[in-house]
Amino acid sequence: MSSTSLAPALRELPALGFAPTTARTVDYLRLSITDRCNERCLYCLPENYSAWTPREEVLSFEEFLSIVRVAVTFGFKHFRVTGGEPLLRSGVADFIHDLYTIPGVETVQLTTNATRLAALAPALKTAGLQRINISLDALDPATYRHITRGEIAPVLEGIRAARTAGFEKVKLNTVLMRGKNEDQIWPLVHFAAEHDLPLRFIELMPVSLTEMLDESNFLPVAEVKQMLAERDELVPIDGKLGLGPAKYFRLKKTGATVGFIGALTDLHFCEQCNKVRVTADGKLRPCLGHHGEYDLKPTLRPAYDKAALLGMMQQALAEKPPVHLFRDNYQPGRVMTAIGG
After folding, report:
1. Cβ neighbours of residue 294 under 8 Å, at least 6 residues apart?
2. Containing domain of residue 131, as a range?
3. How many domains does the chain divide into?
């Protein structure tokens, strides 16, 4: 494993060293239904990675539903289906429909690379899906191919299908990588404005085992914000446009809505974190930027033990860290696709 880190890129910033100023309400659970993906994004999946979870070790949909039934008793209301690429798994629309049948589930969302969205958008909408986040790190086909090892055409087709299907909210996510997609920032802004889609710029996080952990790849959101401000006026948007940590602005000239997620440079990023995640192989992970995981599978197999599952979730929530370790020379133990996007 590489011993490099993104941390040196932050050496001019003060250390975190704070406790949350307000109590956090943790009510958002991300469910990674597969670790498989049909793309190999530089920041997520090493090119030669092959350590996929054996299919028999991946939780069944019914096991995920059992977890959700317990989660709502702890006050969880919002759920996001992720991967890997979740649309690779057969039956995902039915799973989303089943999530909505559980009392206490208020919203179900999906994160996808959109490569299979064109074919599945109508079924997902019928299932009750309300909101979709789509990864879009470049518009230029060659740049997109370099970053993802995939093709941009099916992604754009998927975005068009999502808009046609009439989901409540479709957002675009762009991971910032110096030397990789700076020249795509303005094209992406204009694309977002043209299609009336919020665009979120996300700082690169140390969640890959690739060369991307080098500080030369790090592009802070403040630099992108300044880049936009040199050509347009950023008008802050009061309130939140979703459940995540993004801070949103309206670009006065272009009309685009842009958000900034600075997990490494925002000193208060963790203060209101409201999420935990379940990996495809059944690990409950309270914080993306910590190695701590709680294995839920023994509470589900060979037989479902509700009391044990309740106890495990209670322990995990009680031990959710106040801050992540990304700024402290963090070395990932698992690639992002194995943790869940």
Report:
1. 283, 284, 285, 286, 312, 313, 315, 316
2. 7-339
3. 1
